[in-house]
Design goal:
Blueprint lengths: L5 H15 L8 E2 L10 H8 L4 E7 L2 E6 L4 E5 L4 E6 L5 H4 L2 E6 L5 E6 L5 E5 L1 H9 L12 H9 L5 H6 L9 H10 L13 H20 L40 E3 L7 E3 L6
Antiparallel strand pairs: 1-6, 2-3, 3-4, 4-8, 5-7, 6-7, 9-10
This protein binds a DNA duplex through loops.
DNA sequence: ACGAGGTCCTGCGAGC
DNA sequence: TGCTCGCAGGACCTCG
């Protein structure tokens, strides 16, 4: 577990960028085809072999590796994916569950490892990328993501606010962990319909989403089991979580045992029924 | 429009 | 001890 969301992918991208930019993939090996979306094994491997990395960026929860051929390798780590540049030969543990291995010129190797393989790999041309990018909502840390933008997205839906917050068309990068945390910080009941929130509540939620994502980036993300930074280290934000993985434990605000439910989208929701209304 | 449920995938922990 | 079973869940899908 570890669930790479925005802070985790941001950390990965920052870590691997210096080691990858300008480098060439001397070869490419893929262990399983089931992680591919919209590209065949042959298409992926020939598209990567010999390609040079122009830059490495993050969009939503995805690492985007732009190649000199005008294509982009898009990595969605899913639940258990990690993306690490190894400078030394891989250990037995590191090579177990390695899905994509891309040795670099001048040494080292980019490795996508994914135990459960719920992550996906895409290789998109310019047009494919534009279409993919357009389908995603605003970046939560960008200036164009204002409280007004969030309010407009919430206005049109009676979905549970937690589900709406995790909808990648509303705002990208927020998954289960940070949705739970942001709603606790904003003192909002996750099961309220999105369109009944007051202007003030949306403003608070907007601010808390940004604050928590920034804090998680500063702590290199949240590691429970599988998530690793781009250098293979665990993150530290699990130490700062207020509700996630704390069902039954006392609320850090009022001491009431935290409640847990699967009623929203079949994912664990942890909240304080006293603080969140 | 929205909730519910299934699918993918495998390690792990609980229960018998 | 050794087995089975249910759970974790992001993205995507279908059904009512």
């Amino acid at each position: 577990l570890g669930v790479p969301e925005l802070p985790e992918v941001e950390t990965i991208v920052r870590d691997i960028r210096p080691a990858l930019t300008g480098r060439c993939f001397t070869s490419a090996r893929l262990s399983h085809d089931d992680v591919l979306r919209g590209v065949t094994r042959r298409g992926l491997l020939t598209g990567l072999r010999g390609a040079r990395v122009v830059n490495v960026t993050r969009r939503a929860k995805h690492a985007v590796i732009r190649l000199d051929r005008g294509t982009r390798l898009v990595v969605q780590p899913g639940m258990t994916g990690s993306l690490v540049v190894h400078r030394k030969p891989l250990t037995r543990d590191e090579s177990a569950y390695a899905v994509l291995r891309l040795p670099l010129d001048r040494g080292g190797e980019l490795v996508y490892r994914d135990v459960r393989r719920l992550g996906t790999l895409l290789l998109l041309d310019e047009r494919g990328w534009r279409k993919y990018d357009d389908a995603l909502g605003p970046e939560p840390l960008a200036a164009e993501f204002t409280p007004h933008v969030l309010a407009e997205a919430f206005r049109g839906t009676r979905q549970y606010v937690k589900k709406a917050l995790m909808d990648q068309r509303v705002v990208v990068g927020v998954g289960n962990i940070y949705a739970n945390e942001a709603l606790f910080a904003a003192r909002i009941d996750p099961s309220r319909p999105a369109n009944v929130l007051t202007v003030g509540e949306v403003e608070t939620l907007h601010a808390e989403v940004r604050r928590i994502l920034q804090a998680a980036i500063a702590s290199n993300g949240t590691t429970f089991r599988d998530y690793r930074t781009g250098t293979g280290e665990p993150g530290n934000f699990q130490l700062e979580l207020m509700v996630y993985d704390r069902e039954g434990e006392p609320c850090r605000n009022c001491g009431t045992p935290l409640a847990g439910t699967h009623a929203i989208d079949a994912r664990i929701t942890v909240f304080c029924w006293r603080c969140q209304t």
